[in-house]
Specification:
With 342 residues, this protein is of the alpha/beta class. It has two domains: 93 residues, MurE/MurF, N-terminal domain (Udp-n-acetylmuramoylalanyl-d-glutamate--2,6- Diaminopimelate Ligase, Chain: A, domain 1); 215 residues, UDP N-Acetylglucosamine Acyltransferase, domain 1 (3 Solenoid). Helix content is 16%, strand content 30%. β22 and β23 form a beta hairpin. The longest helix has 18 residues. It is flat and about 90 Å long. The mean pLDDT is 94.
Length: 342
């Protein structure tokens, strides 16, 4: 789909220098721009590329003044980075703008859904599923019985949403994610075997949540596993039963959160972090990658290490850790000297 400079300037509320009828149908980095592409210049260190880029249109700051001839049409805006992000969002909406029900697919007779539903081929909608407006469910997705899905939700190919799950508005569930599988609940017997503890709760995902590809969110044993509004979960994360993740917390890939732990609001959690069960993490906590969390964390702490200690303490300790071979050698020499002189 092609757009003119005039149309794009209208979307971005920008002004044009060059050809208002210049057309583009793809996006590119400024150093890789080709004919028919639109790019942007936000970082001054890339300024030299604007004179050599082959991109048809370039978004620049409204303060930009060319010092040489340009072959690209300019769209001037207040903030090029934000403007390009807005354009990316618009482009994504156009690209994903599908409606209708493809066949083969299965829809239970008791399903209800709103306007502009897209249901991809080989998708399954179970009994009593309720779906809002402008929902897009891509091929090979499974939506179990009694699931509720709000408005403007994207569920990408191969996602599995188990029964009783509740998903709010404006959420994104990426391919391969599994929401509502059984929590890891087993009771040991005297003979060393395990009996399964039935997991009869559900998962609640509030508004504006993103769930990455391959991420799993387990249903609660009783009650609900809750992902609060605005949470962003990366790919391949494990959220166990009865966990609660607070509003606007972001968690990077391969993190595991064990059962019944509570994570506060506005936390930033790095990749491969392990969080033990039944602990409390406060608000605005920052946890560095590969940390192991086995204790409660207060508000505003910055944590690193495994087991985790204070970030500043960790950095000081690490200096000594790197010097351990030298320290050990000096101690050995001191012991030897004492022995020789004793």
């Amino acid at each position: 789909m092609k757009f003119t400079a005039e149309q794009i300037a209208g979307i971005l509320e920008g002004s044009i220098e060059g050809d208002p009828n210049a057309e583009v149908d793809k996006l590119a980095k400024i150093e890789e721009g080709t004919e028919g592409a639109i790019t942007f210049l936000a970082n001054p260190k890339y300024t030299s590329y604007i004179y050599s880029t082959k991109a048809t249109i370039t978004i620049v700051s409204d303060t930009f003044v060319a010092e040489d001839d340009l072959s690209t049409t300019l769209i001037k805006v207040k903030d090029p980075y934000k403007a390009f992000s807005k354009l990316l969002e618009f482009y994504n909406q156009v690209k994903l703008n599908k409606t209708g029900i493809e066949q083969p697919s299965f829809i239970s007779d008791s399903v209800s859904y709103g306007e502009n539903l897209y249901l991809g081929a080989f998708a399954y909608l179970g009994d009593n599923v309720k779906i809002g407006d402008n929902v897009k469910i891509f091929p090979n997705s499974f939506i179990g019985d009694n699931v509720e899905i709000g408005n403007n939700v994207l569920i990408f190919p191969g996602a599995k949403i188990y029964s009783e799950t509740v998903i709010g508005n404006n959420c994104v569930i990426h391919g391969g994610a599994i929401v509502g599988a059984d929590g890891f609940g087993f009771s040991p017997n005297k003979d060393g075997e395990y009996s399964k503890v039935p997991q009869i709760g559900n998962v609640i995902i509030e508004d504006n949540v993103d769930v990455g590809a391959g991420t799993t969110i387990d249903r609660a044993t009783l009650g609900s596993t809750i992902i609060r509004k605005g949470v962003k979960l990366d790919n391949q994360i494990q959220i166990a039963h009865n966990v609660e993740v607070g509003e606007h917390t972001a968690i990077a890939a391969q993190t595991g959160v064990a059962g019944s732990s509570k994570i506060g609001k506005n936390c930033l959690i790095g990749g491969q972090v392990g969080i033990a069960g039944h602990i409390q993490i406060g608000d605005r906590v920052k946890i560095q990658a590969q940390s192991g969390i086995g204790r409660n964390i207060k508000d505003d702490e910055v944590i690193q290490g495994s087991p985790a200690i204070g970030y500043n303490e960790y950095n000081k300790s690490y200096v000594h850790f790197k010097n351990l071979p030298k320290i050990e050698y000096r101690l050995t020499q001191l012991e030897k000297n004492l022995k020789d002189n004793g």
